[in-house]
Amino acid sequence: MKNIIIICMMLFSVIVFAEDNPSIRIRPASIIFTEAKQHQQLQQILLIKNAGNGMLNITLRSSCECLKITPATSTISPGNVQEIIVKLDTRDYIGKITEYVFIDSNDPMNPHVTVAVESKISGHSKSLDTYKMPHTNKGVPVYITIFSTPNCKYCQGLKSRIIPKIGKKYKANIKIKEYFANKPEVYEQLLLLEKKVGIKSTEFPVLFVGEHMLGGKKQINLQLENKIKQCISCGGCKWISIKEVSAVPVQERIDSIKIIPIIVAGLLDGINPCAFASAVFFLSYLVLIGHNRKKILISGIIFTTAVFLTYLLIGLGIIHVLWTLNFKPIRYLIAALTMALGVISLIDCWNIKHGKENMLIKLPSIYKAKIQKCIDYGIQKGYILSALILGFLISIFEFACTGQIYVPTLMYMAQIPQLRITAFNYLVLYNLMFIFPLAVIFWLGYNGIKSKAFLQLLQKHLTVIKFIIAIFFFGMGVLLLRQEIITN
């Protein structure tokens, strides 16, 4: 028992301190300047808050030298706010413009954030001399990759004047590919390429002559011609290999620690005495009416699948309601009830330890009777159809008990905005964990283990299960309260 308590306390620590990470919050989400004239200096304050519990390290860079950011790096303590001065120089612009501030941080949920900077500039445009890239396959091949942003004036000049002029001078066969880094997946690729070459540019555009990187207007103007000459002297250069670097989309890079409460909750819900006992009860009926091993296995698969789909649909409905309501008192109420369930579970644990069979958290007798009645009736309708219907009905009736773990977990998911994008995936993960113990029961039943043995196992470890569930309730309650506090 002592070892079990130690393990449970470690579990509690993992759940409670899963949030000991920095969490970035940015206001405003985008910067929109009013209409301005050329040669004006526009300025606005960008606020970056650390809403987490760890130190937040940020690095900022702009999409254009016309966009100045101060400071470019900062470390923000938990709960503090850093003011970032964003200045836009309009001298080279005409019409509607959009530039970008790229923010990299050690927030595991939002490592990269892009803030758009928009304005409309009135003035007179200048005509520029242009050179056309020669359409020929002659000359030494030089492949240039540019990471820029839409409407980058300097980038347009690079493609239409500067690079063609250099190509004409050295009779090189220059090919250009351009990618827009304001797209999250492209920015991820750029970061991985910078890591590959061992250099991180602080400015845009970022240009690769083969695998030689140049960053920012100043460095490109100074070194581009020399890099192209070097490439020609070596017999040419190929595209930098983007496909070899496997970029991970930002939305899929959810820190594994965030998933731990979901996995733990699903498994605990699966060994919850309510769900466990109902599955064993159904298995015992299959054996009692003389089903062979094949029918037991098929019934188990259908029953488990029906339970999975039913709980998945229930979860989707509840989390949609939680997102729609977004009502603070409800969130605090669920957190408080979760903590209260932790206390009640400890009382149940104490009662079981001292030989008292009456538990406070259990499936109401009326639902037990309905489940038994459903099994009695459904088992006569053919084992395939009955397993499907019973899986659905038992899930509905059991929810009065199993929902005590499910609902707080759904609330936890609803409080994390980033999980909305992949909420379905995490609901699937939870319910796979939930049905895992059920699948094990039917698999062991298929291999000849009797239902009585399962009930004895449950009874033997019921105190431990109740204690672990109590630890979970306390941990999840703390998580819900903490998440509610740091998001305000």
Summarize this, please?
This protein has 488 residues and is of the alpha+beta class. The chain is 54% helix and 18% strand.
Layout of secondary structure:
Blueprint: H1 2-16, E1 24-27, E2 31-32, E3 36-37, E4 41-50, E5 56-62, E6 67-70, E7 73-76, E8 81-89, E9 95-105, E10 112-122, E11 140-148, H2 153-170, E12 172-180, H3 184-197, E13 206-209, E14 212-215, H4 217-233, H5 256-270, H6 273-288, H7 293-325, H8 328-353, H9 365-378, H10 383-415, H11 418-421, H12 423-446, H13 451-460, H14 462-486
Parallel strand pairs: 2-10, 3-10, 11-12
Antiparallel strand pairs: 1-4, 4-8, 5-7, 5-9, 6-8, 9-10, 11-13, 13-14
Helix pairs in contact: 1-14, 2-4, 5-10, 5-12, 5-14, 6-9, 6-10, 6-12, 6-13, 7-10, 7-12, 8-10, 8-14, 9-10, 10-14
Folded structure, characterized:
This protein has 488 residues and is of the alpha+beta class. 54% of the residues lie in helices and 18% in strands. It has 14 helices and 14 strands. A hairpin with a 6-residue loop joins strand 9 (95-105) and strand 10 (112-122). The longest helix is centred in the middle third of the chain and has 33 residues, at 293-325. Residues 1-18, 127-131 and 244-256 have low confidence and may be disordered.
